[in-house]
Amino acid sequence: MVKSIMQTSLSQTAVSRVIEMAWEDRTPFEAIERLYGLPEKQVIVLMRQQLKRSAFNNWRARVSGRQTKHLKLRPAEIERGYCPSQYKPQGANKR
Predict the structure, then answer these.
(1) What is the pLDDT of residues 10-33, one digit of tens each?
(2) Category of 69 on φ-ψ map: left (φ > 0), alpha (ψ -120 to 50) or beta
(3) Does residue 91 lie within any of the structural domains?
(4) Residue 13 belongs to what domain range?
(5) Rounded to two decimals, what is the model's pTM?
(6) Is 18 inside any structural domain?
(7) Domain for residue 80, yes or no?
(8) Phi/psi of residue 30, each to 5°?
(9) What separation in angstroms does the CA of 44 have from each of 5, 53, 65, 77, 93?
(10) Contact (CB, 8 A) for 54 and 8
(11) Taking every pair of C-alpha atoms in the chain, what is the biggest distance, in angstroms?
(12) What digits encode the pLDDT tens for the residues 34-86?
């Protein structure tokens, strides 16, 4: 039942972006919920459905207990969700 809800409420592009945000160390679950309406538990369900078992297990091990994935656990000096050099400008690799 959860799978059909996920598929109807999010486009494939949105699912891809949620997965990307979930893998990012500095993107908190609260940001995903604010942008896509998916609380942490639903993000976990989505990741379990969309990733291979080994990739899901690696992701869970990576984010479990990570301070930067939860706003309440984050150090106060971390104010941004990503490193300024993380995203390249559009068209940077085009020739």
Answers:
(1) 899 999 999 999 998 888 888 899
(2) alpha
(3) no
(4) 2-69
(5) 0.67
(6) yes
(7) no
(8) -65, -35
(9) 14, 12, 14, 27, 33
(10) no
(11) 46
(12) 999 999 999 999 999 999 999 999 999 988 877 666 666 555 555 555 555 55
Could you tell me how far CA 82 lies from the centroid of its own chain?
12
Q: Which amino acid, 85? A: S
Q: What angle do CA 89, 84, 93 make, to 5 degrees?
A: 25
* 31 CB burial (10 A radius; 0-12, 13-18, 19+): middle
Residue 40 CA: distances (Å) to CA of 22, 37, 45, 77: 9, 10, 9, 23
The pLDDT value recorded for residue 45 is: 96
Overall number of domains in the chain: 1
The token pair at 50 is 């969309």
The total number of residues written for the chain in this structure: 95
Residue 95 lies in a domain: no
